[in-house]
Amino acid sequence: MNTLYSFALSFTVCSFAVLIINYLFPNGNVKKTASLVLSLYVLVSVITPLKTLNKIELSISGNEEDEEVILNGTASAVKSRLRMLTDKVLKEQGINNYELKIDVSMDENDIVIERFTVLLEDITDSDTIKNEIREKTGIEPEIDKF
Questions:
Q1: How far is Cα 129 from Cα 59, in angstroms, rounded to an integer?
Q2: Alpha carbon of 19 to those of 22, 70, 90: distances in Å?
Q3: What is the pLDDT of residues 88-100, one digit of tens each?
Q4: pLDDT of residue 51
Q5: Residue 81 CA neighbour count, 13 Å, CB half
Q6: pTM of the model
């Protein structure tokens, strides 16, 4: 914010200086040359603060509570995505009565899937269902009967 304020202040001062100097020059070749030089001056004064933008750190840093909220949101998103993909596979297989148990946690910066279980009434075709879910999600679930 301080960078933006200093940029706006320097641009305003530069613009007023150019206006005053440009007004004082008489019409003719001298005014054209002065206008060119002043335009270059304004251009340099605008570009110079932009060099500092690459020095601004845009990483997420803060207290541990903020990081925990972000990580919990990520774990929740992974859990929702697994549920959605598994639901799609089971619907394609014609299975409407099932239950999913998915436990996801965070280990430092890694997402750990502790449990991924699909509970079905009939597990006669469990290998096919297991393979389909593994293809869609990339994770092999446990298939149990409920």
A1: 41
A2: 5, 50, 72
A3: 988 888 888 888 8
A4: 65
A5: 12
A6: 0.51
Alpha-carbon distance of 115 to 104, in angstroms, equals 7
Tokens of 4: 């933006």
Instruction: Tell me what pLDDT residue 65 has.
Output: 55
CA–CA dist 138, 136 (Å, integer): 6
The token pair at 13 is: 């001062």
Torsion of CA 6, 9, 10, 15, to 10 degrees: 160
Contacts of 46 (CB under 8 A, 6+ apart): 11
Contacts of 91-96 with C-beta under 8 Å, sequence gap 24+, read 92/132, 93/125, 93/128, 93/129, 93/132, 95/120, 95/129
Q: Which residues of the chain are modeled with pLDDT < 70?
A: 1, 49-73, 109
